[in-house]
Write a structure and sequence with these properties.
five-stranded antiparallel sheet, single chain, alpha+beta, nucleotide-binding, HisK_dim/P_dom, histidine kinase, disordered N terminus, Heat Shock Protein 90, Beta-Lactamase, five-stranded mixed sheet
């Protein structure tokens, strides 16, 4: 046995690293479709609102501006020069309306920047005359400018653009943002409300898969009748499965107890009554094998979930390697970084390593030497620890790889001569899954079978 030679850790095979294609979960799918529906409804509603409110708004704004211009024009026309100055000052101070002479060299930009502006300009020209000019900028100064004439003299009337309300575009954006925010909040609430029972069902199913039937019970008094029926059906199924599991454990324990008593008597009678040493040795070996098979059955049928805690992978592997150190037909090389800790059950993890070593010793011997050479390597990757245990035997047929972890399956000719229970790899896979890890088998490129274990890092 050589526990010091470093062995490179090959990349784990595809089955170990394979992940299902990621997509939207149910919450985000529901949220996306609800948000899309609501957003489409909002856009359609806003378009309808814009079409219906454009005409009345343009007429109302034009009426207000026309009235302001007409009043200003009439007041200026029938006032003397002193009163006119006072009137202009009063309009500027109290109404924020400024009246200035319009010069031919004035540079201006028309107010017709959008559909609403065009409608207001057209309405003002119809009410004040075709010579009326509506501008948004005059000589670089922004505002709502209305050009009109009094007895042949041209004037500009400057007023606050807010008199016609916010622009149509700004109103549309404000409504859209407000409605979209409210719609997204409502969609998130509805999606969460719909997704909550399914999330609880998924959690209960995962707990039941791990053997925790008590934690998998769902609320049978929910208000929704469909969800209530699903929860009741699931709880009854969990109760039946729990009862079946308990009956199975009791039955296997009874079989184990009832078989071991006659086996013990057979062993004693064999050692005392059989005179032929070879026959006595073979019979004792058969009885020991039957006892080991019973232990395998009990290991596979163990129902309680393991208690996970930080475990030193180095210590577990060293103990398992030490236990097989006296075997002349087996050599083990270990390469694990110091201080490698995993989240596992120490007893269960020791049983896993021991089963894999025993499997490699039985079926992974090199044909030329008849010795099983086993390499155990490990490394950390993110929040996981990858462990590989490989032999240098002949491997197995590719079509049999996925079946090796089935209970009682023997895949190749090397296994047909085996007299075990056929549960070793099945126990390993089940134990690793119960500890929240992953397990897979693969043939190596240089020959032999490799067992890949993925455990959570402590």
């Amino acid at each position: 046995m050589d526990a010091t030679n470093p062995i490179p850790l090959e990349t784990a095979p595809a089955p170990l690293e394979m992940r299902p294609r990621r997509g939207f979960n149910l919450f985000w799918r529901t949220f996306f479709f609800l948000a899309l529906l609501l957003f489409g409804s909002i856009v359609a509603w806003l378009q309808t609102f814009r079409a219906l409110e454009s005409e009345p708004r343009a007429i109302q704004s034009a009426q207000q501006l026309a009235s302001l211009v007409n009043l200003s024009r009439a007041a200026l026309r029938y006032s003397d020069s002193i009163a006119r100055v006072s009137l202009i000052k009063t309009l500027a101070d109290e109404e924020r309306v400024r009246i200035t002479p319009r010069e031919p060299k004035d540079k201006f930009e028309l107010f017709e920047s959008d559909e609403l502006g065009e409608r207001i300009s057209a309405e003002l020209k119809a009410r004040l005359g075709s010579g009326t000019v509506v501008a948004s900028v005059v000589n670089g100064e922004r505002g709502l400018w209305v050009g009109f004439a009094i007895d042949g003299d041209a004037y500009w009337l400057l007023t606050d653009p807010s008199k016609v309300g916010p622009t149509r575009n700004s109103t549309w954006v404000i409504w859209l943002i407000t409605a979209a925010a409210l719609s997204l909040a409502g969609a998130a609430f509805i999606a969460r409300l719909i997704n909550r029972p399914l999330k609880q069902l998924s959690f209960a199913a995962s707990r039941m898969r791990d053997g925790d039937f008590d934690a998998s019970l769902l609320d049978e008094k929910v208000a929704t009748s469909e969800i209530r029926e699903v929860n009741i059906g699931f709880n009854r199924m969990a109760e039946q499965l729990s009862k079946i599991e308990q009956d199975r454990v009791i039955m296997l324990a009874g079989i184990s107890h009832d078989l071991r008593t006659p086996l013990a008597r057979l062993r004693l009678e064999t050692e005392m009554s059989v005179t032929d040493a070879d026959a006595r040795e073979h019979m004792a070996a058969d009885i020991a094998q039957l006892d080991a098979i019973i232990d395998k059955f009990l290991d596979y049928a163990r129902p309680e979930p393991p208690q996970l805690e930080p475990v030193s992978l180095n210590a577990v592997v060293d103990a398992a390697v030490y236990a097989v150190g006296d075997y002349e037909d087996m050599r083990v090389a270990v390469s694990i970084p110091d201080g490698m800790m995993v989240l596992a059950d120490q007893v269960e993890l020791s049983r896993v390593i021991s089963n894999l070593l025993e499997n490699a010793r039985r079926y992974g011997k090199t044909p030329e030497t008849g010795v099983a050479r086993v390499d155990i390597v490990a490394k950390g990757r993110d929040q996981w620890v990858l462990v590989k245990l490989r032999d240098h035997g002949t491997g197995v047929a590719p079509e049999a790889l996925s079946k090796l972890t089935r209970p009682f399956f023997r895949g190749d000719t090397a296994r047909t001569a085996a007299t075990g229970a056929g549960l070793g790899l099945a126990i390993v896979e089940k134990t690793i899954h119960r500890m929240g890890g992953m397990f897979s088998l693969a043939n190596t490129g240089s020959g032999g079978l490799a067992a890949h274990i993925k455990l959570r890092r402590s």
